[in-house]
């Protein structure tokens, strides 16, 4: 009987499952953030940046 030797090391590892888990996680988190952001009716705060006044040196 000719078959695979299951006692040896694995030379052809599959990366499909970890990549699928990663992509599903990213899509799930993105969908959650999008839906949570669209369901809130509160006004979003706007950030303001104040730059320091320019100073000139006089000698």
Uncertain regions spanning at least 5 consecutive residues: none
Task: Estimate percent helicity.
Answer: 40-55%
User: How many DSSP-defined strands?
Assistant: 0
Radius of gyration: 28 Å
- The class by helix and strand makeup works out as mainly alpha
Question: Helical element count?
Answer: 1
Q: Could you tell me the strand content as a percent range?
A: under 5%
Q: Would you tell me the overall average pLDDT?
A: 83
- State the order of secondary-structure elements, H for helix, E for strand: H
Largest sheet: none
Specify the overall morphology.
elongated
Cα-to-Cα separation, first versus last residue: 97 Å
Give a quick precis of the structure.
This protein has 59 residues and is mainly α. 41% of the residues lie in helices and 0% in strands.
